[in-house]
Amino acid sequence: MKKICLSWIGTHDPKFGDGGGPIIALLESPHADDFDELHLLYNFGQPLEKHKDEYRRHISKKYAKNKMVVFHEHELNPTDYNRIYEISTGIMKSLLKKYSNKKIKWHFHTSPGTGQMNAIWVLLSKTRKLAAHNVSVLITGETGTGKELLAKAIHAASLRKDKKMLTLNCAAIQETTANATLFGWSKGAWTGACGEGLGYFLECSGGTIFLDEIGELSLETQTKLLRAIQEGEVQRVGDGRVLNADVRIIAATHKNLLELVRNGKFREDLYYRLNVFAIELPPLRKRGEDITLIAEKFLGAINDKNDKIPGYTAKKLSANARQLLINYPWPGNVRELYNTLQRVCLWTDSAIITADELKNYFTHGAQHEPAGPDPDFLFPVNLDEITVGLRKKYICKALEKSGGNKSETARMLGYKNYQTLAHEMKRAGIDG
What we know:
The protein is of the alpha/beta class. The chain has 4 domains: about 1-130, 3-Layer(aba) Sandwich (Rossmann fold); about 135-280, P-loop containing nucleotide triphosphate hydrolases (Rossmann fold), CATH 3.40.50; about 285-370, Helicase, Ruva Protein, domain 3; about 385-430, Arc Repressor Mutant, subunit A, CATH 1.10.10. It has helices at about 20-25, 50-65, 80-100, 115-130, 145-155, 175-185, 200-205, 220-230, 255-260, 270-275, 290-305, 320-325, 335-345, 355-360, 385-400, 405-410, 420-430; strands spanning about 1-10, 35-40, 70-75, 105-110, 135-140, 165-170, 210, 235, 245, 250-255, 275-280, 315, 350-355. The strands form 4 sheets. Strands 6-7-10-5-11 form a 5-stranded parallel β-sheet, covered by helices on one side. α15 crosses α16.
């Protein structure tokens, strides 16, 4: 087995004379024993360009004797999700091809690099880990958070990617036709039945079925679904034969399935069969500044789509519009964001979308905009107790990420020197 660690080189890494940086901290920590190859991706530019060759020499001379260290240089915008993903997966594919006769265990170092770079590592570690297995996946989250997009990403990264993926909205099918839709029907199964139907399971054998809003299925259909997942066997409506179907299930719901189980509306054994790997997608309102990144991506796609419309002017978001996007609660989540941007692009002539203009196109109107202080801020409080607790959490996390390197920890936390860190550790009751 090959154990490979991938990492971007961050802003502070080349300044290895000043505390080391996260990569050197990793190489000097016990975690370095977990991998035998380190692949470093970087996008140097001014003022770091002058440190590049010196940093490569230092890393190669000091650490390459213990493990293979490979540098990969690329030119990119360090906030461009698509380009970061393309580069990261490209290197992984080349390594998979190189070691085609060996299994690879991947490690991802998430301390260096931009937030966008780290987000891609997290995405790859999550989707590839569960995608490579044949287990069922349950995706939960509010309506419009992108559950179907995630399901498609899991399928695309899986061993079934070359097979069919079908999507069924369980809330949109009638109970009388649910079994036939899922498991198929034979000729003459009911009065007026025309021909035969394979159903989703047989049509998609070898592939993936995405069952959206699975909490809407009746108990009867749940029972048959459980057998199909558990035994890989289905019976078409009107057909006594038992047929085999090899299907991976990815299910999604905005409901609390455990609560439905407690109320007798969802089978407990089916719940645990589906919930082998659970992913909860956060609502858009909890994604902070990532909202503007998503919005910019949507806006680019909308501009490209509308480019052929006579007189259309490509749109950009003003600074106050971006802030409004962050502050708005987005009850319709990602879907509402896209539709809002689409409306404002169609009806606004100006090239710059301002906050005042944007307000006119919110689905739920201005009355849903947050007003006053955040409701999470409740008074009275003990502010000293809160700030000490917050410092302790950040110090402990920074120590963990730096591998216990206190000079690097001090730098990560913005302290001028190690003595300040030592004082804050003592104040927060942290040993060391």
